[in-house]
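step 4 of 6: structure.
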Amino acid sequence: MTTHTIAQAQSDSGLLPIAFAALTGLFLVFAAGFSHASAMHDVAHDQRHAIAFPCH
Amino acid sequence: MTRQIFASALFAGLAAGVLAALLQFAFVVPLLLEGELFETGARVHFAGADGVPQSVAGGVGLSAELGRHLGTLAMNLIAYTGFALVLVAGFALAQRAGHRVTPRSGLVWGLAGFVAVQLAPAAGLPPELPGTTATDLGLRQGWWALCVATTAAGLGLIAFGRGALALAGAVVLILLPHVVGAPHLDTYFGIAPPELSALFATRSLAVAAASWVVLGLVAATFWSRETP
C-alpha cells in the first residue's frame, strides 16, 4: 500500500464519524422541533415556542 | 475521533440544554403561559367596551405544572444535544482543513450557530406566542430549514472561504431566504397584546443567544482537551 492510499483510507475513515454525528444531531433536532406526532408535540410545546421552531 | 465528537457534544448539549431550560423558566415560559390566557379567552385584549384595547398586565408565573416543565427540560436537552452534534461535526471538518478549534473560537462558533438557527429565521418568522394564527405549518418548517441551511453555509463561507467570490456567495446565501420571503398570511389575527408578543420574541432570542454561546464554549473546551 502506498503512502497515498494509506492517507486516503485514513481520511475516509475520519469522515464517517463526522457524518454519523451530524446525522444523529439532525435527527435529534427534527424530533425536538419538527415531529408532528402529537405526543412529541405536547411534550415539546413550550420548548418549541421558546426556540421558535415553527409550531401549530 | 468518534469518542471526541460524541463526548464534546454530549457535555455541551447537557450544559446548554439545562441552561436554556432554566433561563426559559425564569424569563420565557411565564410570558408563554400569560399568552395562553389570551389564547384560551381567559383574558381578552382587543374588545374594550369603549373600543380601546386594554387588559390587565401580569402573568401567572410558572404555575404548578411540574410534568409540563419536565417535558420542556427534556426537549431542551434533546434539541441542544442535536445542535451540539452538528456543531462539533463542524469542528471536526474545520480541524481536517487545518483550523484549530479553541475555547475562544468556540464562543464564535456558538454565536454563529445562534445567528443561523435563531436570529436569521426570526427575521422572517418571529418567535410566536401560543395562539398566534399563521400560515401552513409545512411551508413554515420548509422555509425555516432553508433559512438555517443557507445562513449556516453563508457563515461558513465568511469564516473559511478565500477571496471576494466567497464573500459574495456568502451574501447571496444569507439574503436568499429573505428575498424569497417567509410564508405569511395576508391578514393579522393577533389576539395577545403587542407588548407581550414583542417581549416574548426578544426574550426568546436573548435566552437562545446565551445558550448557544455556552454550547459553543463547552463543546470547544472539551474538544480542544481531546485534540492531540
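step 5 of 6: annotate
 - The interface with chain B takes residues 11, 14, 17-22, 24-34, 36, 42-56 of chain A (CB under 8 Å).
 - The first helix of chain A runs from residue 3 to 33.
step 6 of 6: archive
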